[in-house]
Amino acid sequence: MSRKRAQSLIAQGIAAAKAGDISRARLLLRQAVEIDPTYPEAWLWHAGVAENPQHAVSALERVLELDPKNKRAKAGLRVGRLQAGIQAAQANRRTEARAYLLQVTADDPSNEAAWLWLAGATDDSLEAIACLEHALQLNPANDRARAGIEIFRERVRAETQWLCPICQACEATRFATCPQCRAILDLARGDAAIANPSPNTEKIRQGADRLASEARQKPNFVSYYYLGMALLNLARPDEALPHFREALALKPGDAGLAAQVDTLEQALADAPPPTVRISAADREKYQETPGRLGLARKSILIVDDSPTIRKLVGMTLRKRGYRVMEAGDGREAIEVMQADGFPDLFVLDVTMPRMDGYTLCRAIRDNPTTALTPVIMLSDRDGFLDRMRGRMAGSNQYLTKPFQPDVLVNAVQDHCPLNG
Amino acid sequence: MLMVQERAGRSKAPKPTKAGTSRVEDDSIENELVSLLGELDFLREKMILARDDGRRGELLTFAEELLKHVSTFAHEHVPFRSSLEMKAAESKANEFRSFVHQLRNREKLELEQTLSGQAFLTLQETVLAYFSAFTRQFSTSMAARSWVEVASIFVVELKLLAEAVSQ
């Protein structure tokens, strides 16, 4: 019965596809292969009307499972995998793109386009060079491949040798803080840059002059960005801001940078920056003043496997003046703390993969550095035993989901006041 | 003209802004949206659990509840219900309801997975359409930036769930 129904759906699907009604054909053929997945013809037509190359590839693979000699499927698969690889590469899904393109180059090593796209999809510069050399062997007149090889060779050189973008000190490995000029080089750590305790002002100033001259002669992102960073390290954030804006104008799609520039702008609007370097005594004073250029911002670590909740809580707390760090589970939280230091308060989800909230809470309590740090637990379980479990693990407060943002903010402010 | 006024009078007016503040400074809509998104994500997590446990009936109920939250919010906070975004959202919502009706009234289960997948993809598209309408409630795109960032993460998560349901 179901076989007959499948046959009827296939016939209708093919008719719809021939008539150009692709969405109906797709629906009918999908239903047909769900009822009876043993018809190569149905999978073949299904591939022909697939929504995207990835679906087409899966359908064609099914055809070859059922009929390994099917020539149309073999030919279609080569084209489909190349298209799927290109689409994935364009969407920056590099691992997926690489997997498809590796299959294409293995099946057909004479596919010049596949080698070129594979070079772009790999994270390994040496592998990229090898791919481009293949493409160049196939077509010695391919200027893109030749130019690409030069770019990747330059990248290999840069990967093995690092130049501080501010003072141009040459080091064997990459640094987030230059060991020579001691400038902090990332706007994500802008607060730390402004409060840099030991910058080599002479070297940073020379670097800033060079970058300003470069930016004037040939405006480019790197010069503007690091000129901004140099000025931040010299505790001149008001002068740095316009350069970050210029950098952003050259990279308008960089949402991370846009958010960092916004934060800096906000901090400057809230409190005019000091124009001289802050002394140790003054820094202590600023650290007691919440919101002053963010120097003393209390930090909160949110650990939740839901990216929506992390962003939501992060957005709410950032607006109240907190610095927010995020982690998707207990283990990532530990990595974040190792990289960015310990927070002033934890917000933990109970149900998480790898390490749940209770286990992480106990680990926090067992660590002498965080033993007294407040912990707020978020859970979708409202039972007495669940609350007890949270308390026994060492949490200070237990909130149930869905929570109102104001309730969470009040809890955070109770345990970790901004001016406390 | 009169008709327009009558229609406008029937729909619930948007919440007034705080006295003395511009819409840019007034973040009441953002606060409301943050609360809404918290509730929606809570339901999304419940849907994941229901799907993992194979409780398809509950999965549908949670999906319906999620849509109810969004459409109720839209009715309370979006004054221009005849806008293109709202029309698109309401048409998608109807499409989703019709899928749910089909799923609830099916005797044969042979196509349930296909239909469920389509229903959840439609739900995701509906939520996206409503979110576009909500984004219009901000006075400037700058003011909406944080909301857009969080909402887009939620929509992607919802799409992942829809894809998982259809597999």
Structure in words:
The complex is a heterodimer of chains A (420) and B (167). With 420 residues, chain A is α/β, with parallel strands linked by helices. Chain A has 20 helices and seven strands. Chain A has a five-stranded parallel β-sheet with strand order 4-3-5-6-7, sandwiched between helices. In chain A, strands 1-2 form a two-stranded antiparallel sheet. In chain A, helix 8 (125-138) runs antiparallel to helix 9. The radius of gyration of chain A is 28 Å and the shape is flat. The relative contact order of chain A is 0.04. The model of chain A is unreliable at 272-296 (pLDDT under 50). Chain B is mainly alpha-helical and 167 residues long. In chain B, helix 2 (28-52) runs parallel beside helix 6 and helix 5 (112-135) runs antiparallel to helix 6 (141-166). At the A-B interface, helix 2, helix 14 and helix 16 of A face helix 2 and helix 6 of B.
Largest interface: which pair?
A-B, 25 and 23 residues
Oligomer: heterodimer
Q: Look at the structure and give the CATH class of the largest domain in chain A.
A: Mainly Alpha
Mean model confidence by pLDDT of chain B:
77
Number of strands of chain A: 7
> Could you give the count of β-strands of chain B?
0
- The level of helicity of chain B is over 70%
Number of helices of chain B: 6
**What gyration radius of chain B follows from the Cα positions, in whole Å?**
17 Å
Alpha-carbon distance between the termini of chain B?
51 Å
By helix and strand content of chain B, what is the structural category? mainly alpha
Instruction: Give the CATH architecture of the largest domain in chain A.
Output: Alpha Horseshoe
